[in-house]
Amino acid sequence: MNREQVWKAASDSLRASFGRLLDVRDVRRVRRVAGEAWVVTVALASSAGDLHVADVAVDDSGAMTPTLTADHVIEAVRRAERASRRPPVEDALGELGELANLAAGGDDELGLDVLSEAQEPVEKRVEGALASGDADSLAVARVLLPRLLADHARRGATLFTMAEVEVKLGEPSLARGYLEAAAREFADRFDLPALEKTAALELQLAGADAFSGSPVRTLLERSRARLRPIEDLFEARSLAALSGDARRTIGSSATLRTLSPAETLVSEGDPARSLYVVKSGLLGVWLEKPSGGSWLVRCCFPGWLLGESSVLGGADARCAASLRAERVSEVWTLDAAAVRAIMDADEAFARTIAETKQVHRIDSFFSMHETMGQLDVQVRDDVLSCIQRLESFEEETTLLPAGVVPRTACLVARGSIALFEGDDRRRVGVVEPDSFYGVRDAIHRIAPAVSAVAMPHTTVAFFDAERLQRLCERSPEHVVAVLERLG
Question: Are 410 and 461 in contact (CB under 8 A)?
């Protein structure tokens, strides 16, 4: 379903149950472990303006979760009533006027700062401070630059500039910290020129001996290795197990296409008709933001297979993301019908394609996840490599018993995991879809006090505890902190 279809389905459902009392105010795409979904904002129209009633999820059939009732409407009215009794917020324009009066009298530096910031964008103030280059101006740039980190597309460049400022201010240790952060941003985008520039400054600050073990050098070498072109279509991991007639069938239907930088291969929501394998260069995966626009969530290097929806999603399958060349790139296009015929005859190959699709879904979910989204792509790749298996359960099954150090951690893709305590199996909690369970216990080898039981019709991604432990042992503290917060 596309956005317009979801909007219509939700509106029709609300009209049937509530007449003209409720209406749709926003529809946005969200990423789930099991795939894409839509979230619809429902409002109650009143003389005082719209009252937010609920945000509901809509699946491909048009069904809404939760099902709205009169209780939801009553609670929205009560929330509005409670809000109306709160003291009014002071007039911000009045406060700004007071600051302007103080600034006009020359007695208040804060007023001048506020007015200056209101009149001139932070970017311009930073440019001016850097152009001046004296110690006082650089100190101003040091304060202002962190405000620019909110621009996701320019985070790496901002961090690199912050490092340069610290070098000029005589703080090389701070500069090296910013350089490592910048290198991770550049590695996420496989921006080799910027990464090499970062490595050059790191070498200058650290010296040759320390540079050999530097995280910046490691990121540079890993990026260079991943960008090496593949010569043969069947070097792609998803196709490597094929042989004989299957290789000849796919090879004869494959065509090689060359893309210019910024050229779009497919757009999110387009009909899914082909699979793609990156031969050389770099493809960016772009997802639509709920607030509008798009966001580069990862780059795919030579050997990656993409477009699995074309063979798994049925006749009306749509592309789950936009694919765009980030540099001159070569991509093999595979005929979906030919690949589907081989999947029908080769169960192991069909399972490989399905697992590849699921990993890509989890990766998209990670990129939009409130906690996992804080990690750079390299770390998210390491976490994905910890996936041991995906398994579905049609009846109640104990996954992690109480009192036993877990050998896996869980991510619920569908259904739920119930948590039971004591011999009488007292139910004390539920782990819903798109939620983690047992990550901290797996990392720190802690035996849980409750038993985790998969409910009927539940699908779970299992992460190997030993791999997670090794990942934490070699990762910076902030990575471990993020993983500990999962679930």
Answer: yes
**Domain range spanning residue 150?**
120-226
- Residue in this structure with the two tokens 């941003």, named with its chain if needed: 185
Cα separation, 230 vs 60, whole angstroms: 38
Give the up-direction half-sphere exposure of residue 214: CA atoms within 13 A in the CB hemisphere. Answer: 26
Q: Any idea of the CA torsion for 134, 136, 141, 144, to the nearest 10 degrees?
A: -170
Angle at alpha carbon of residue 112, lines to 109 and 117, rounded to 5°: 130
271, part of any domain: yes
The CA-based dihedral angle spanning residues 158, 162, 163, 169, taken in that order and rounded to the nearest 10 degrees: 160
In a domain, 333, yes or no: yes
Go through 193-223 and write b for each residue having 16 or more CB atoms within 10 A of its CB, e for each that does not.
Answer: ebbeebbebbbebbeeeebeebbbbebbeeb
Token pair 């893709």 is found at: 413
**Percent of the chain's residues with pLDDT above 70:** 91
Q: How many domains does the chain have?
A: 4
Domain boundary among 368, 395, 419: 368
Q: What is the rounded distance in angstroms from the CA atom of residue 407 to the CA atom of residue 391?
A: 15
Q: How far apart are CA 462 and CA 437, in angstroms?
A: 10
Task: Please write the tens of the pLDDT for every residue from 181-192.
Answer: 999 889 888 888
Query: Helices marked H in 85-134 — which ranges?
Result: 92-105, 109-119, 122-132
Mean pLDDT along residues 213-237? 91
**Phi and psi for 263 in degrees, rounded to 5?**
-75, 135
Looking at residue 298, its pLDDT comes to 81
Cα angle at 346 between 340 and 350, to 5 degrees? 55
**Do 258 and 359 share a domain, yes or no?**
yes
201 domain residue, yes or no: yes
**Cα 344 from chain centroid (whole Å):** 32
- Type of residue numbered 95: E
> Length of the chain in residues, anyone?
487
Domain membership of residue 108 (yes or no) is no
